[in-house]
């Protein structure tokens, strides 16, 4: 009887060791990076979160608690095959976002600009001789945006010193980034004081649309619902939650689709399509930046979401 127990114990130990070896070598595969991915580098409106000189409740605690701060709206594209990365917009948080995008692994392949509002191109200053002293970084811009950079200081200095190399884009014209990765700009209506404004379609094995700024969905001659139905992910302008959010200012002068309006616009979409929508470019007053707000708790019951900084979206 004792001999049987000893043999059984030995058999059990050998079986467990073999199982552990099988699990380590066969069952648990090594994580493989996707060919292409998008990284969310910031979700705040142009002026960031907190906003300069804001002493109100929306920003007050963030001056001491830096963990809740958000960087300015920006996304990056990574090609894990060539280890090349591209940034969409050059924000005031450019140096931190560049570090996060490249992560000591990727080479910066270029910057795509949406328009000439302060949160979307002023980070280009970091490429100048006072900072990086960059060498001909490709900067993709629409025609009016390109001319604006060429003819106005200090940006023209970046061009003249060859810190940046401006590459013109055209509406709805695809640009190949690598063999199976492309980006396409498309015009959207916005306050175009200095340049036109574009959103982007990014295509790998899946499609992502990025529209950080637009006036109102009904001012666009394109059906945004159709865009959402035809893509896999939609990162869309969520600057303000509702009208009256900015104290003492006429919000018609700074038009954006209120999130409450967007929810109504998208209510006819299927649940699957609604779940594609992530709001980005949130103003410091937007109550969705506060997870404990009444609006956030109500919003959490919807199929929509707010984009998360440093989240990775596989393409």
Describe this structure in words.
- The protein is α/β, with parallel strands linked by helices and 315 residues long.
- The protein has two domains: 30 residues; 284 residues, Metallo-beta-lactamase, Chain A (4-Layer Sandwich), CATH 3.60.15.10.
- Helix content is 26%, strand content 22%.
- The chain contains ten helices and 14 strands.
- The strands form two sheets. It has a seven-stranded mixed beta sheet. Strands 7-8-9-10-11-12-13 form a seven-stranded mixed beta sheet, with no helix packed on it.
- The chain is globular and about 50 Å long.
- The N and C termini lie far apart (61 Å).
- The model has no long low-confidence stretch (mean pLDDT 90).
Which terms summarize this structure?
single chain; 315 residues; alpha/beta; Metallo-beta-lactamase, Chain A; seven-stranded mixed β-sheet; 10 helices; 26% helix
Low-confidence stretches: none
Q: Could you tell me the radius of gyration in angstroms?
A: 24 Å
Going by CATH, the homologous superfamily of the largest domain would be Ribonuclease Z/Hydroxyacylglutathione hydrolase-like
Shape: globular
Give a quick account of the main beta sheet: strands, pairing sense, barrel closure: 7 strands, mixed
Mean pLDDT: 90
- Compressed to H and E, one letter per element, the order equals HEHEEHEHEHHEEEEEHEHHEHEE
Q: What's the helix and strand layout?
A:
Blueprint: H1 2-27, E1 36-42, H2 57-60, E2 74-79, E3 84-88, H3 94-102, E4 107-112, H4 118-121, E5 137-141, H5 143-151, H6 155-160, E6 164-168, E7 175-178, E8 181-187, E9 198-203, E10 207-211, H7 224-229, E11 233-237, H8 259-265, H9 271-274, E12 277-280, H10 294-299, E13 305-306, E14 312-314
Parallel strand pairs: 3-4, 4-5, 5-6, 10-11, 11-12, 12-13
Antiparallel strand pairs: 1-2, 1-14, 2-3, 7-8, 8-9, 9-10
């Amino acid at each position: 009887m004792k001999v049987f127990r000893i043999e059984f114990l030995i058999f059990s130990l050998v079986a467990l060791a073999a199982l552990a070896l099988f699990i380590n070598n066969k069952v648990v595969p090594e994580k493989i990076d996707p060919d292409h991915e998008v990284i969310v580098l910031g979700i705040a409106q142009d002026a960031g979160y907190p906003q300069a000189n804001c002493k109100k409740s929306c920003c007050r605690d963030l001056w001491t608690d830096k963990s809740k701060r958000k960087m300015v709206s920006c996304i990056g594209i990574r090609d894990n095959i060539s280890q090349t990365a591209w940034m969409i917009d050059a924000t005031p948080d450019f140096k931190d976002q560049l570090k996060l995008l490249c992560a000591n692994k990727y080479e910066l392949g270029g910057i795509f600009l949406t328009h000439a509002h302060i949160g979307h191109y002023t980070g280009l200053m970091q490429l100048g001789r006072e900072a990086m002293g960059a060498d001909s970084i490709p900067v993709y811009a629409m025609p009016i945006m390109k001319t604006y950079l060429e003819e106005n200081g200090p940006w023209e200095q970046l061009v003249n010193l060859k810190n940046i190399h401006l590459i013109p884009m055209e509406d709805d014209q695809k640009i190949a980034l690598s063999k199976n990765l492309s980006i396409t700009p498309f015009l959207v209506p916005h306050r175009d004081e200095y340049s036109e404004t574009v959103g982007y379609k990014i295509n790998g094995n899946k499609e992502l649309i990025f529209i950080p700024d637009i006036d109102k969905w009904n001012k666009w001659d394109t059906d945004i619902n159709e865009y959402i139905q035809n893509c896999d992910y939609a990162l869309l302008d969520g600057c303000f939650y509702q009208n009256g959010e900015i104290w003492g200012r006429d919000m018609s002068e700074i038009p954006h689709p209120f999130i409450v309006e967007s929810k109504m616009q998208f209510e006819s979409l299927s649940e699957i399509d609604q779940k594609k929508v992530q709001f980005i470019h949130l103003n410091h007053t937007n109550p969705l930046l506060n997870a404990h707000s009444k609006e956030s708790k109500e919003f959490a019951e919807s199929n929509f979401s707010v984009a998360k900084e440093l989240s990775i979206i596989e393409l």
